[in-house]
Write a structure and sequence with these properties.
Helix content: under 10%
CATH architecture of the largest domain: Sandwich
Mean pLDDT: 94
Structural class: mainly beta
Number of domains: 2
CATH topology of the largest domain: Immunoglobulin-like
Distance between the termini: 40 Å
Length: 324
């Protein structure tokens, strides 16, 4: 996805998807687990909002060094926006039920080569319907930081490519059941091929049996706070996993999620399908995993990913499931 045209005059301010990436987000990695955004509910803790409480949201932003020869418009401050959503793959402003902006504030401009941090206190309203982005529970986050003369898009975040943004989509759940059903929202930002033919996206679910250092540390930072957690699962599931695409127009389903359904060489267990989605309409899609055979205390790491049919990154969420 291209960069936000309203922010192209600045190439100095950036947020990191992975520490050290200098704003050059790796769209083939877990770019949606940025440590530059955090949400802490006073009761529920990390990545979770508490209704009727003041929740702490923090954004960290960076400025490239003088030696980078980046272009800066000469502003004296930075604008910081913070958005929240229910568990989601793709989010967008001005889509009913998608992301809601809960913070907009000016922040001091960091020196060249330095970083800045802005904290906001978000009072999550009480009594909202569960479908409201500001309701309590696990949240997905988007932060946008840019020189205050910039005018970012009001209809698109331009994730993951735009360096002024970062996303944190990590949900940790525990269950005693043998079957997990987790609802994730998404939407399609692409223009339809015709009024009668919605454009397609690819939905992919991956069971990460050998997470890299960044993913492992990020997920363990949450799991190790949960009573009963013992270890990450390192073998495929007996019963597999999938998106429940009932009612959608689906093609090219590839299921390598079960034991015995051998994925391509050196590839993790996965489920993939092409799905036709209407444009700019929020859609809930259940993800289901059969946890039969998962030992008590084991946690499974799933990456839920949306791309274009040409494999252009659009959204992602990491779901850690602890079996109790």
């Amino acid at each position: 996805m291209p960069n936000d045209p309203g922010l192209v005059n600045d190439t100095c301010i950036f947020m990191e998807a992975v520490p050290g990436d200098q704003g050059a987000h790796n769209t083939h990695g877990a770019w949606w687990l940025s440590a530059d955004i955090s949400l802490t509910g006073p009761v529920s803790g990390a990545d979770t909002a508490d209704s009727g409480q003041v929740n702490t949201v923090t954004a960290k932003f960076h400025r490239k060094s003088a030696s980078s020869n980046c272009h800066f418009p000469g502003d004296e401050s930075i604008s910081v926006e913070l958005w929240v959503a229910n568990p989601s793959l793709v989010m967008a402003p001005r889509v009913r039920g998608s992301a809601t902006r809960v913070g907009f504030i000016g922040s001091s401009l960091p020196a060249e080569g330095d970083s800045g941090t802005q904290q906001l206190d978000w009072m999550a309203p009480s009594g909202l319907a569960a479908a409201d982005p500001q309701s309590g529970g696990p949240k997905c986050l988007v932060a946008r930081c840019y020189p205050d003369s910039g005018t970012p898009s009001g209809t698109n975040f331009f994730l993951p490519d735009d360096q002024h943004l970062a996303q944190r989509n990590l949900c940790v759940v525990s269950t005693t059941a043998h079957t997990l059903v987790f609802k994730v929202n998404t939407l399609n930002l692409a223009l339809p091929l015709s009024p009668f033919q919605p454009s397609q996206v690819t939905l992919r679910a991956i069971l990460d049996l050998a997470p890299n250092h960044f993913v492992k540390n990020t997920v363990l930072g949450r799991l190790q706070l949960l009573t009963g957690f013992q270890q990450l699962r390192t073998t495929a599931l007996t019963g597999g996993f999938k998106f429940d695409l009932t009612g959608f127009q689906v093609s090219q389903v590839t299921d390598h999620s079960h034991q015995g359904l051998t994925p391509p060489l050196n590839s993790p267990p996965s489920f993939e399908a092409r799905v036709s989605l209407p444009t700019r309409r929020l859609l809930p899609i259940p993800f289901a995993a059969n946890l039969q055979g998962v030992n008590t205390g084991q946690a499974c790491i799933f990456h839920l990913i949306q791309t274009s049919v040409n494999d252009v990154a659009q959204g992602g969420l990491t779901l850690a499931v602890l079996k109790l």
